[in-house]
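Design a sequence for this backbone.
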């Protein structure tokens, strides 16, 4: 599985505008099989749960908010490339017109 940090990097979507790329990703995400969905959801939970832990710790440690913000920044850096990589194989290649 190749990781893509942007929808522009997915070869099948390079020629499309942003709204069409996002629609194609959404359609491809609906085609993910069970284990792929499970992997993606577990990865999301591994990023989101520490955020709430740090928020709870704010009652005793105000520096926890800094850590919560830093972990929040990890969400798009970790989850989106995996999501795009899993969805890329379900996006059809663009049709080329022959002579």
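Sequence:
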């Amino acid at each position: 599985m190749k990781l893509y940090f942007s929808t522009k990097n997915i070869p099948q979507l390079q020629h499309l505008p942003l709204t069409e790329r996002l629609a194609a990703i959404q359609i491809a995400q609906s085609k993910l099989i069970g284990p792929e969905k499970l992997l993606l959801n577990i990865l999301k939970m591994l990023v989101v749960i520490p955020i709430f832990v740090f928020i709870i710790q704010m009652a005793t440690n105000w520096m926890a908010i800094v850590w919560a913000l830093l972990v929040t920044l990890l969400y798009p850096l970790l989850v989106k490339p995996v999501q795009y990589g899993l969805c890329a194989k379900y996006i059809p290649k663009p049709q080329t017109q022959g002579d």
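The chain has a mean pLDDT of 87.
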